[in-house]
């Protein structure tokens, strides 16, 4: 996004019910809510998408936050899971483009995760199982970018964004 300021791309700022970590600031990295506040906003229908990843540990995107960004002329980018991506696309329809970024294969993803050396084998297996599940959602997205080579994937994504922004 920093490489292409002419596209005016800005990440959405999600909400979470977890406590801030380190130097995180409310309204910068996340909007920090209590679980009760989060649940009330769910009940009020204020989220484009949300997920409870653990008991009382929520993440989600407020409709009002995204609408504020759009009103400022920003092109909003979401980094969400597949269900969130589908919900956002359903809400915005043709005003949004969904891109599914996938590994070249599960085997390659396994090789990359093992190569990092940061996760235990059981964590890698959990991540691979989730990736396998998420791959089943790929056909629901407008475009699919295979992240075989990072630079190529970035160039392809850039072309897709330019085309979408010029034709809406």
Automatic annotation (TrEMBL):
Main EC class the enzyme belongs to: transferase
CDD domains: GMPK (cd00071)
Subcellular location: Cytoplasm
Pfam families for this protein: Guanylate_kin (PF00625)
GO molecular function: ATP binding; GMP kinase activity
Annotated Guanylate kinase-like domain residues: 1-162
Domain of life (superkingdom): Bacteria
InterPro entries attached to this UniProt entry: GK/Ca_channel_bsu (IPR008145), Guanylate_kin-like_dom (IPR008144), Guanylate_kinase (IPR017665), Guanylate_kinase_CS (IPR020590), P-loop_NTPase (IPR027417)
Catalytic activity, as annotated: GMP + ATP = GDP + ADP
Keyword set includes Nucleotide-binding: yes
Keyword check for ATP-binding: yes
Keywords linked to the UniProt accession: ATP-binding, Cytoplasm, Kinase, Nucleotide-binding, Transferase
GO cellular component, one term: cytosol
EC number(s) on file: 2.7.4.8
Family: Belongs to the guanylate kinase family.
PANTHER family hit by this protein: GUANYLATE KINASE (PTHR23117:SF13), GUANYLATE KINASE-RELATED (PTHR23117)
Function description: Essential for recycling GMP and indirectly, cGMP.
Name assigned to this protein: Guanylate kinase
Origin organism lineage: Bacteria, Pseudomonadati, Bacteroidota, Bacteroidia, Bacteroidales
């Amino acid at each position: 996004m920093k490489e292409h300021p002419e596209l005016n791309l800005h990440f959405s700022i999600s909400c979470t019910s977890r406590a801030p970590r380190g130097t995180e600031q409310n309204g910068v990295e996340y909007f920090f809510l209590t679980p009760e506040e989060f649940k009330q906003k769910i009940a009020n229908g204020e989220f484009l998408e949300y997920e409870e990843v653990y008991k009382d540990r929520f993440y989600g995107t407020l409709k009002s936050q995204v609408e504020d960004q759009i009103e400022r002329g920003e092109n909003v980018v979401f980094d969400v899971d597949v269900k969130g991506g589908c919900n956002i696309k359903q809400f915005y329809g043709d005003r949004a483009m969904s891109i599914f970024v996938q590994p070249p294969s599960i085997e390659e993803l396994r090789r990359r995760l093992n190569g990092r050396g940061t996760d235990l084998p059981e964590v890698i297996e959990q991540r691979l199982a989730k990736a396998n599940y998420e791959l089943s959602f790929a056909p629901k997205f407008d475009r699919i970018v295979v992240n075989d080579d990072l630079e190529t994937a970035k160039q392809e994504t850039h072309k897709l964004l330019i085309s979408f922004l010029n034709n809406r």
